[in-house]
Description:
Layout: H1 3-10, H2 13-18, H3 23-46, H4 49-65, H5 76-94, H6 100-116, H7 120-132, H8 136-147, H9 152-159, H10 163-195
Helix pairs in contact: 3-4, 3-5, 3-10, 4-5, 8-10, 9-10
Amino acid sequence: MDGGDTIALLIEDNFFRENRENSVTVFSQLYRHYFKRLFMTALKVVRDEYLAEEVIQDVFLRLWENEDKFHLISEFEKYLYRSVANESLNKLRNQKTQSKHYDHLSKASRSDFVENFLEEEELKMKIAKAVETLPSQCKTVFKMSRYQGMKYRKIAEELNISEKTVEGHMVKALKILRNHLLGLILLVSYLNWVFGN
Length: 197
């Protein structure tokens, strides 16, 4: 299966709903897949790399916050391009002055951030720390699902609870983790694209 087929599968309603425990991974894959093309689209409008980056992050942030409405989007790629175009125009209207100094400072700050803060091991520690903040049962279910790769049915049998209860714990766990990790996920995905090319 090539990259295009994989992304097509990721945005299918049935796949997304049936794999909610993997929604963080799915979202990150979608972000990385579309970023470069969407960035160029935004750049044509705002003519400023910093603003173009901000446009893409804002669009995906809103998509993440409205994940429960994901299945209502009939043509996902067209939706993304339309959202980026609209957001770019909004940024252009609101941006009265553009400072090259600010742009250079921003890029320098991102470089320092990568070197001093977003090292791989530290990122892993932050994710692990966020997982440890989960309520006891949520944490147990989450670790069995994500770390041990167990299916909901098997987890339910092991813990002597229903599959529906397992699903409920996973939904609750993901909501909590999103609050801790959303900004980090977006930033890491973007920086992986920038510094990986």
